[in-house]
Write a structure and sequence with these properties.
The chain is mostly helical. It has eight helices and two strands, in the order ααααββαααα.
Length: 163
């Protein structure tokens, strides 16, 4: 991707209308605040100011995400806990704004067999597809879970690979 295309994309991300749409989605999703203690309600009280700050930081290349707030939540059907990182409200607005720009570009390139974390796709649709494949091909299904995969992933190596 050329510099002009990348510049065009970041301009779309920090466009005030895109940020406003992103905020509406973050507000709708609710959720707890991050390490800075900012809540949805407090952000909403001074929304225009916070969105303007995000806009200028992104435009000037000064935006830096904050560390996530680490909490542990119950793992369904288990006594084990699952680590969860809660981003700040501002970081969620940025992430949503980025998603709104990148999703229409990349969504058409994803495999039709991919269902995880995709808008308009569900676990039920994935199961229907699996059952259809089983009935048609008699194929095998392997259910695997890599223990603590995301929490043990070396993020430095990952960033080197995708940067």
């Amino acid at each position: 991707m050329g510099a002009r295309k990348a510049h065009s994309l970041i301009s779309q991300v920090h466009d005030p209308r895109n940020l406003a749409r992103a905020w509406q989605q973050v507000k709708k999703n609710k959720g707890a605040g991050g390490v800075d203690g900012m809540t949805i309600a407090r952000f909403e009280q001074n929304r225009d100011h916070y969105l303007d700050v995000v806009h200028h930081k992104l435009k000037e290349g000064r935006y830096r995400p904050r560390p996530v707030k680490r909490v542990e939540i119950d793992k369904p059907g288990s006594i084990k806990k699952r680590p969860l990182g809660i981003p700040t409200i501002v970081d969620r607005v940025f992430q949503q704004a980025l998603l709104q720009v990148l999703e229409p570009i990349f969504e058409p390139t994803f495999s039709e067999a991919s269902f995880g974390f995709r808008r308009g796709r569900s676990t039920h649709q994935a199961m229907r597809r699996i059952w259809g494949q089983l009935a048609q091909d008699g194929c095998w299904i392997v259910d695997a879970d890599i223990a603590d995969f995301f929490s043990t992933l070396d993020h430095e190596i990952l960033l080197d690979r995708v940067a």
